[in-house]
Amino acid sequence: MRSRCAFDCRHLVCRQVLAIITLAGFLLPSADARAAAPSGQVLPGLDVLVRDGFKQLAGRRVGLITNHTGIDRNGISAVQLLHDAENVDLAAIFSPEHGLEGKLDVSRIGDTRHAGTNVKVYSLYGATRRPTPEMLEGLDALVFDIQDIGARFYTYISTMGNAMEEAARHDLEFFVLDRPNPIGGVAVEGPILDDGKQSFVGYHMLPIRHGMTVGELARMFNAELKMNLKLTIVPVEGWRREQLFDVTGLTWINPSPNMRSLTEALLYPGIGLLETTNLSVGRGTETPFELFGAPWLDGKRLAEALNRAETPGVRFAPITFTPDASVFKGEACSGLRIQITDRSDLEPVRVGLEVACQIRRLHPDDWKIDGYARLLGNDAVFNALKQGKSAAEIEASYQDDLASFLKRRQKYLMY
Question: How would you write the pLDDT of the chain (415 residues) with one tens digit per residue?
């Protein structure tokens, strides 16, 4: 059973979130925004830009940071739309991890040209992870349009942050075509990244599940990192913070090769933490992040322990699987499949911590725990895990920091 301390701490955070939403009217869609979007329809920033005749970018020579997720509700790419706009000059394209088409799962991607427009595509996941002065030469502005999934270590927000820094350094305007957070904008979970541990998988001091859109994150980055960037957010219309992606009416496009469903996106903030250790998280199977395991793992025993812990919103079933790629490729793994039983009760970071604590208890010699620190990004939590603390104890330890983050983020929220 969950400890009363952990229960009270989590519900204190929930009450603080609700208080923020209630007291700060600007967090909810304005009457104008609700009227602008057709009833029940969510319009991403790209659709708003098109509807408004590209007036926000009029007369500018722009570089577009995007990938295959940058499409409007009709499936037309931001590349094509900006290229065809009479009042916009699309001069360069920049692609993030996995490339412009989102199909590459490699460590380095080269520059190319866009087949339909012949515009140069600069890779920001190759020789450099930020635009260089040569790439930015002649531009007036950078435009960002990529679908994020709501976890601190998903690298698209790091690409955005790096590009914002360079835009500020070169006196360029920066536009974010906002999109919904697919796993919702209310729940916030996990320890805050330690200052000094910033990296490409941890751009800023955020919790693991930040509950913000890319536009809101851009506002936070600009202010808290003192970029002094001329920043414009083209907002989503018709989206409410409590909405998950499958109620938006938008088409799910795998934002990366192994992020294939909303279920996987929901589990990713917790299960993704495991993949820098000697565990398979299902890469090389049909359902990454919905399962995990290893040849050395006792899946049946672990499933029994996790189900006894009564982690909210999930059940665990022992399975065997053989990945055809990534960790333990071609090796039979004993593991667990995760079933989400109640999305409204699901706390994915708590799920991930419970899994880590139980594996540490059952397999202290087999699990190479040191790799877990990389994405976790918090020394106090990592040390507590190594010391054998329970998930409830660990979770309770960072609730004050999480409450402080909620206050920090309040001023940047737009919906």
Answer: 334 344 444 444 443 443 333 333 233 333 334 334 555 699 999 999 999 999 999 999 999 999 999 999 999 999 999 999 999 999 999 999 999 999 999 999 999 999 999 999 999 999 999 999 999 999 999 999 999 999 999 999 999 999 999 999 999 999 999 999 999 999 999 999 999 999 999 999 999 999 999 999 999 999 999 999 999 999 999 999 999 999 999 999 999 999 999 999 999 999 999 999 999 999 999 999 999 999 999 999 999 999 999 999 999 999 999 999 999 999 999 999 999 999 999 999 999 999 999 999 999 999 999 999 999 999 999 999 999 999 999 999 999 999 999 999 999 999 9
Report d(CA 115, CA 91) in Å as an integer. Answer: 14
Q: What is the largest CA-CA distance in the chain?
A: 63
Domains and CATH numbers, the chain: 21-252 (3.40.50.12170), 257-377 (3.90.1150.140)
As a whole number of angstroms, the distance between CA 250 and CA 25 comes to 26
Do the beta carbons of residue 62 and residue 143 sit within 8 Å? yes
Q: Which residue stretches of 170-250 are H helix?
A: 214-224
Half-sphere exposure of 319 (CA within 13 A, CB side): 19
* Phi then psi dihedrals of residue 44, to 5 deg: -60, 165
Residues 6+ apart with CB under 8 A from 174: 141, 142, 143, 144, 163, 164, 167, 168, 218, 229, 230, 231, 232
Q: Which of 358, 365, 309, 306 is nearest to 337 (CA)?
A: 306
The three-class DSSP label of residue 28 is coil
Q: What are 126's two structure tokens?
A: 């190759």
3-state secondary structure of 345: helix
Q: Tell me, what amino acid is at 399?
A: Q
CA 355 to CA 292: how far, in whole Å? 10
Residues facing residue 290 across a β-bridge = none
Nearest in space to 152 (alpha carbons), one of 109, 196, 198: 198
Beta bridge partners of 65: 94, 144
Contact (CB, 8 A) for 367 and 277? yes
Residues facing 94 on adjacent strands? 65, 122
The pTM of this model reads 0.90
